[in-house]
Amino acid sequence: MRHHDLVVIGTGSGNSIIDSRFDDLDVAIIEHGVFGGTCLNVGCIPTKMFVYASDVAEAVRHASRYGVDASIDKVRWTDIRDRVFARIDPISEGGREYRVDPERTPNVTAYFGHARFTGPKALVVDRTDGTGSDEITADRIVIAAGSRPVVPPPVAESGVPFETSDTIMRLGSLPERLLILGGGFIAAEFAHVFSALGTDVSVVARSGQLLRHQDELIADQFTKLARQRWETHLGLDVERVTGGDGEVHLHLSGGGTVHGDTLLVATGRVPNSDRLDLDKAGIPVHDDGRIVVDAQQRTPVEGVFALGDVSSPYQLKHVANHESKVVAHNLAHPDAPRQTDHRFVPSAVFTDPQIAAVGLTEAQCRQQGLDCTVKVQEYGHVAYGWAMEDLTGFCKVIAERGTGRLLGAHIMGPQASSIIQPLIQAMSFGLDARTMATGQYWIHPALPEVVENALLGLEI
User: What positions carry a catalytic annotation?
Assistant: First the structure.
């Protein structure tokens, strides 16, 4: 049984912890899948590369509105796919090679296999190649084991082939008719990707709205637009799944059936905590499976930390990166610990239209009894919105009446993930709405003017 000073489980954001500050320690890193984690391999980065290609296709398809006649001659799916993974796969492999190279990281031992706790500071790693297992102990352990797609029982028990966000991007050919089960971020993004590239898309969701966790105006308006673009079956459960290769049938509550050649299950992700035998280490979890941590990312077991999807309520890469920086600092400077800052966590959905949000929704403000004022500013009411002929985009800002304290911001439309950044900054540094709107120049006629006008329109 080998002993290490520090063990990190997971090579996503956990991998970034191991830097020069720990050169004098005997460190181990454990990975049971592809090196680099969810974001690099099956999440943020490859999906957005697909989204960009789909955005280009949509721009060509609608170019005539600007007096430019254009058409799409052909969508080369394999070329789109290979462009993405020709960039992604070498990064993953390079990260793996770096960690196993004794000349570049001589103090790091990489274990490739599935880790399970056998005690508070003890692990067994079942090797991926099936050659056995390794038992190790450590003074300190960081759990950054991530999450995996949820597969509902009617799908899992059917025996019918299906895809998840882990596999859908590596398909050998473009589906003719794609069934998407789910109504959240992943479903909305892939519905855009595949429909823009020419696939007929059907979306099935239990909720009566898509993106139901967004602000109610965003969810309502996006659902209306989605109904115009995709075949939608909302407020329905999937009772049975039948079919086989190239033929899938979703039998819905109420008696309806939806048909397709490919099924994408996009019903969320679950923390991998249930696969770690945490009970043997005395590490507790929340009801939803997230590992319990405090503001310093410490579990109740001394010397054991957790970060990212396995413990965080925010399944977002920028949150995992922030948490990994806090953990790295606290490991290196235990006498001067830092805390994570989850006050204003932004998010974006790279669908069409793009969506971005930070802070409270209007409903949450009402639930908390806050006296708030709201302004909705349409893209089409600013000059750059005219240039785009945009008819659906808007910026919604919510502030506390009297103080002007920004409580939330919700944007739907082109470049939403970029133009929300000034609002994130203002909330993070305590800048009130009126000061933010009037205390700086706003480039005319750039799109951020929609944010400026929304702030000026608040009745503070």
Answer: 444
